[in-house]
Fold:
Amino acid sequence: MSSATAHLPTNLNEQSGGANRSSGMRTRIGVLIHRARLDRRLAEGVDPATSRELTLRARQITRESYRHSLASSFEKVLASADLPSPRLSSAVPPARREVRAARAALLDLCRALREDAAVEPAGIALAQQLLTDGTGPLYIESHNDALWHAVRRAAAALDGRA
Structure:
């Protein structure tokens, strides 16, 4: 299994040949402000090495702690799919039927997020999009197994098969 982050510089100075501290701080602030756009680019498969911001964001989202947090969020969605509907909530409820139908694929994704040592940033970004896009297949009922397909795509992208 390959990892796009394995060949990336381990720090921002390495990539820029010794960039000064203010440049590194600007990069960090830029990543903080533009992380949604950077995540979309990573999900599209853009090579993280093409910019300092993408490199840093790829490193952030492929960290073990970040991946474990994503897996925990998916596990909470799985658990909520079996509970009665909440009466009042501002949260967008998951598409329960879709979640139950994609249970095995979601559990496989959780396992890969927790256990695979080397993962591709595109797979993490795709998994994150599933959780955060309130108009996506995790939250919208469909008749074509859209959630199952999206989860399988994210899982395949984790190890570079997508």
About this structure: Confidence is low (pLDDT under 50) at residues 11-19. The chain has eight helices and no strands. The chain has two domains: 4-61, 64-158. The CA atoms of residues 61 and 124 lie 7 Å apart.
